[in-house]
């Protein structure tokens, strides 16, 4: 049921606070403690990590790019996000000290499932981030982290994207905790901020924001260009993807620094 909303996607946009809250759930405990059992790595394995590969498609790939900035900054591990459908045609260099994370909302994305199967066969530890228990990807990996978003009906992902990013934040914090790359004070501060995320999202959605005014002002424009730097780049990529998917308006996204090199 749409629950009074015009579309399932709009309903799922407003379900983001609950989706993030469920994803965080009991993984953050009182006293700034973090439990992430589904990661499936021992402390020694985490300490010995030399590289992380994140494989996904579409929206999930953009979440993975956000994850790269967070993990590298906090846990100080090199992260290589890649589009699963392209990665499977490479001859990837993997080892036991390379963690491969596959992200798929449905857990059935064929290219991502095939990529994770290849990574596991190469001997790398594999973790899936998915919203669907018992899906194909869960049977191809060593361990699974669930986003706990509930059913997503809308074709264009909304609540599952923010939940994937939230879960990647917890992954980054867990790695940083074990590798001791964040101070106790910074780790606790970030955990508290993540714990308060659902309430902040709800405040924005329920508040007086300019989204409707912006849409009315620009909906007849023939082309949109999204620009971003650092963590803003994957957000720009996701924004452009959403506008194309939902409105069919031609849209492009670029790294802001690349504007002078072609566009």
Mean pLDDT over the full residue set: 94
Spatially, the strands of the biggest sheet line up as 4-3-5-6-7
Low-confidence stretches: none
Give the strand tally: 9
Q: Helical residue percent? A: 40-55%
Order of helices and strands: HHEEHEHEHEHEEHHHHEHE
Q: What percentage of amino acids are in beta strands?
A: 15-25%
Question: Based on helices, strands and strand pairing, what is the structural class?
Answer: alpha/beta
How many helices?
11
C-alpha geometry: globular
Looking at how many chains there are and whether they match, the oligomeric state comes to single chain
Rg over alpha carbons: 19 Å
Largest beta-sheet characterization: 5 strands, parallel
Question: Which characteristics define this entry?
Answer:
about 260 residues, alpha/beta, 11 helices, two-stranded antiparallel sheet, about 45% helix, five-stranded parallel sheet, 9 strands
Would you mind describing this structure in some detail?
With 263 residues, the protein is of the alpha/beta class. It has eleven helices and nine strands. The strands form three sheets. A five-stranded parallel β-sheet has the order 4-3-5-6-7, with helices on both faces. A two-stranded antiparallel ribbon has the order 1-2. Strands 8-9 form a two-stranded parallel sheet. The longest helix is centred in the middle third of the chain and has 21 residues. It is globular, with a radius of gyration of 19 Å. The model has no long low-confidence stretch (mean pLDDT 94).
